[in-house]
Structures are given as structure tokens and as C-alpha cells.
């Protein structure tokens, strides 16, 4: 499991963040239909735009084979994971967000596996 693996993880993670971010920006009605009513539409769209920016950063770094923002990848996935789980648990958001929590957990797991194996080989 070498560099190609981690670049692939960043490409998938980047695509996921771009797609997830574009959805509320382009079609808020369908986003609300799937995820439930929202109080502050502008805030949902801002999170979408930030998700797009993060995803594009991941894609740019991976496709150019540049230094990967591993800390950012962990921090973003952990942030979405915690908010998804906590807010579903307290009834603030719908259970559909648990799908995102699982996906974010997978990203964190893959990054962890890479870092452990990479550290063991050095």
C-alpha cells in the first residue's frame, strides 16, 4: 500500500466533498427534501461552498502528486463525523446524516491505515 493508495483516497475524498457541497448550492429544494428543513439556507450553502473548496484542494494535491493535506483531511472528516453523530443523536438532524458519518469514518480509517503502514516502512 504505497503512494498510489493515498493519492486514490484523496481523489475519492475530494470528489465526495465536491459533490456533497454542490448539491445544496445547486438544488436546495432536493437537498432539503432528503435531509430535512433548514433554518438558515445561507449557512447550508456556505458549508456547501467550503466543502467544494476542500474537495478541490484534495483533488488538486492528489492529481498533481503534491504534498497531501493529511491533517486537513482528518480534521474535516472528524468534524463532519462528530456533527453527524451528535446531531442525529440529539434529534437536530435526520438519520440520513449517519450515511455521511460512515463515509467520513471510512476516510479516517483509510488515512490511518496508510499512515501506520507508511511509518512502519520507514
Q: Estimate the helix proportion, in percent.
A: over 70%
Helical stretch count? Answer: 5
Total number of distinct structural domains = 1
Number of strands: 0
Helix and strand sequence: HHHHH
Main sheet characteristics? none
Low-confidence sequence ranges: none
C-alpha end-to-end distance: 13 Å
Written account of the structure:
The protein is mostly helical and 122 residues long. The chain has one domain (3-120). The protein contains five helices and no strands. The protein has helices at 3-26, 28-35, 41-63, 70-89, 97-120. α1 (3-26) crosses α2, α1 runs antiparallel to α5 (97-120) and α4 packs antiparallel against α5 (97-120). The longest helix has 24 residues, at 3-26. The model has no long low-confidence stretch (mean pLDDT 95).
Please outline what is shown here:
With about 120 residues, this protein is an all-alpha fold.
Lay out the secondary structure.
Layout: H1 3-26, H2 28-35, H3 41-63, H4 70-89, H5 97-120
Record keyword descriptors for this entry.
122 residues, mainly alpha, 81% helix
Amino acid at each position: 500500500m504505497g503512494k498510489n493508495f493515498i493519492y486514490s483516497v484523496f481523489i475519492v475524498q475530494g470528489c465526495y466533498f465536491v459533490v456533497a457541497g454542490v448539491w445544496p448550492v445547486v438544488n436546495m429544494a432536493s437537498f432539503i427534501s432528503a435531509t430535512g428543513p433548514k433554518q438558515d439556507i445561507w449557512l447550508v450553502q456556505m458549508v456547501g461552498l467550503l466543502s467544494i473548496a476542500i474537495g478541490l484542494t484534495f483533488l488538486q494535491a492528489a492529481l498533481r502528486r503534491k504534498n497531501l493535506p493529511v491533517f486537513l483531511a482528518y480534521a474535516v472528516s472528524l468534524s463532519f463525523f462528530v456533527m453527524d453523530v451528535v446531531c442525529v443523536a440529539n434529534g437536530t438532524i435526520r438519520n440520513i446524516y449517519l450515511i455521511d458519518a460512515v463515509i467520513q469514518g471510512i476516510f479516517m480509517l483509510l488515512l490511518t491505515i496508510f499512515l501506520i503502514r507508511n511509518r512502519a516502512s520507514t
